[in-house]
Amino acid sequence: MSHAARPNTLFKNLNAKVAAVPMIATVLIVFIGCTLWTVVLSFTSSRSLPELTFVGFDQYTRLFNTPRWNVSAINLGIFGVFTLVFSTVIGFILAALMDQKIRFEGAFRTVFLYPYALSFIVTGLVWQWILTPTFGIQRVVRDLGFETFTFSILNDQRFAIYAVVIAGLWHGTGLVMALMLAGLRGIDEDIWKASRVDGIPIWKTYLFIVIPMMRPVFITTIVLVSTGIVRVYDLVVALTGGGPGNASEVPAKYVYEFMFRRANLGQGLAASTIMLTTVLIIIIPWALMEYRGGKRK
């Protein structure tokens, strides 16, 4: 009986299994295969075209001895910390306010989500206009009579990366708000009633009851925002071009420059491998937590 049952199990849902073959082949060949090929080439001296002349960790040694890469890594850290913290905090506060059943909630939700519907190129151009001293915030304030007012962070090497942070927050906080609002709407109404009956201040209810219950939402939000941070490229290109100088350079732009403009595949792929490793460091713990959480259920 057991031997007769095996063929039936093998051919069960055969149509679905056959339909999944192209997707599985694409994942194995295009994604996993090309990723492994990228890592292999990062240990070679490839220039304009791939070549299998292995040089060990020379490309990585050169990478971390390059001031431009170090600046881009520091900028990514600054952008990442500010974006992750402020988008999460502001997004949660906006969601908590929206959860009070306010009037015109749909309109407000659309307004906050609208920037996320724009491409990073459009966001970068919009904020370039806003922050440009000649006709942006500085010009508007000076026209109001404050002629000594100065606000030109796009032209200041010390603060250019913070212009990218501002534009990034404007672009992505609406998505975080939507995720948080969905999490808040999933909280049982009885919890709110019980906290009011017990006289617990609303801030304590959020801090000690609601937020711990929204742990999966926070983890998903952090993973989504973090992977977006590592890949940030077009926002920087549209807003600052990586300047002034290399003051707002980021790793993704460094990879593009070395692979397509300087014809140095080995160096560009070494940098992209470091970026891949960073993404895996973020995703793998999240996947393990989700898997373990699913097994407990």
How does this structure look, described?
It is a multi-pass membrane protein. Keywords: Cell membrane, Membrane, Transmembrane, Transmembrane helix, Transport. It holds the Pfam family BPD_transp_1. The protein is mainly alpha-helical. It folds into 2 domains: 1-41; 57-296, MetI-like fold. Helix 4 packs antiparallel against helix 11 and helix 11 (215-230) packs antiparallel against helix 14. 74% of the residues lie in helices and 0% in strands. It has helices spanning 2-10, 14-41, 58-64, 67-98, 105-117, 120-131, 137-143, 160-185, 189-197, 202-213, 215-230, 234-239, 251-261, 265-296. The chain is flat. The chain contains 14 helices and no strands.
Q: What's the topology here?
A:
Layout: H1 2-10, H2 14-41, H3 58-64, H4 67-98, H5 105-117, H6 120-131, H7 137-143, H8 160-185, H9 189-197, H10 202-213, H11 215-230, H12 234-239, H13 251-261, H14 265-296
Helix pairs in contact: 3-14, 4-8, 4-11, 5-8, 6-8, 8-11, 11-14, 13-14
Task: List the keywords.
mainly alpha; MetI-like fold; single chain; 74% helix; 2 domains; 297 residues
The domain tally reads 2
Helix content: over 70%
Could you tell me the radius of gyration in angstroms? 25 Å
Q: How many individual β-strands?
A: 0
Task: Quote the distance from N terminus to C terminus.
Answer: 33 Å
Number of helices: 14
The gross shape turns out to be flat
Q: Quaternary state, please? A: single chain
Q: For the report, how would you describe the main beta sheet?
A: none
CATH topology of the largest domain: MetI-like fold
Keywords: Cell membrane, Membrane, Transmembrane, Transmembrane helix, Transport
Family: Belongs to the binding-protein-dependent transport system permease family.
InterPro entries: ABC_transporter_permease (IPR051393), MetI-like (IPR000515), MetI-like_sf (IPR035906)
Subcellular location: Cell membrane
